[in-house]
Amino acid sequence: MNAPANLPRILLIDSNVYFAKRLGDALKQQGFDVVPSTQAAYALTMLEWNAPAAIVCATNLREMGAYEMAPILRADPKTAGIPLIAVGGGGDQALLEAYRAGCDDYVDRRRSPADIAAHIRSFLVSRQDGFQPTQMLSTAETALSGSLSHLDLPGVIQMLGQAHQTGALHINAADADGIIFFEGGEIFHAECGTFFGDEAVTQIVKTCQSNASGVYKFVYGATAAQRTVLRSATDLLLDAMREFDEDERNAEENHAEKESS
Fold first, then answer.
1. Which of 50, 124, 159, 169 is the most exposed place for a label (fewest CB within 10 A)?
2. Tens digits of per-residue pLDDT, 7-43?
3. Listed residue (162, 144, 148) closest to 233, CA to CA
4. pLDDT in tens, 121-145
5. Alpha-carbon Rg of the chain, whole angstroms?
6. pTM, to two decimals
7. Exposure letters 161-179 (e unless 16+ CB within 10 A, then b)
């Protein structure tokens, strides 16, 4: 399998040499050229002369991990556009923590190396196909679309925010048929069935998390007549993930009670 022409090299930063070797081999199977490093500080010096297509960095490094590296990358115009994928041992909350730190994606290192490599490739291909600067045009005729199995909804929302986009994000997943409007990267208005505003955003995200599949389409330049969402995207995503976790726990408890009765 050959990697796309503009996804040739990945800088892999992890102090666990055994894990890095296994993940590196899996990434090579996906068609990438892998440059390993055990220290993030040293890896940063490599960016001056050999910028990679993406950086995959562990979160638990002793001196500097993915969360600490993110603001350094984003502060330099030369490296601000390099995708940073954090690799750690947490769940959905860790994903949001990674987004808040400035990372572009998060992968649980407890998954198999082959699974992680496939996720990374899907993420980068989706990012390449959907978020190229030449496609970020503020015209209603230009649309971005993709599969939520390649890039989950929180990732899409974070990317649109970071790119300061204005337009309408249409989402269809299971029984959720919703729309989220952005103004300069901020969520401006949302609708989903009988829900509006903050509740609509929460409902859409929870449904997408439950099904882990669906499709989205972003129409550049589309605007809403009135603003119904006043909270930040990060706060809304945190609330949605928290409610999703609570619903999952309640469902498990109810199932356990039925089996014991």
1. 50
2. 578 999 999 999 999 999 999 998 899 999 998 888 8
3. 162
4. 877 776 654 433 323 333 333 345 6
5. 19
6. 0.55
7. beeebbbbbbbbbeebebb
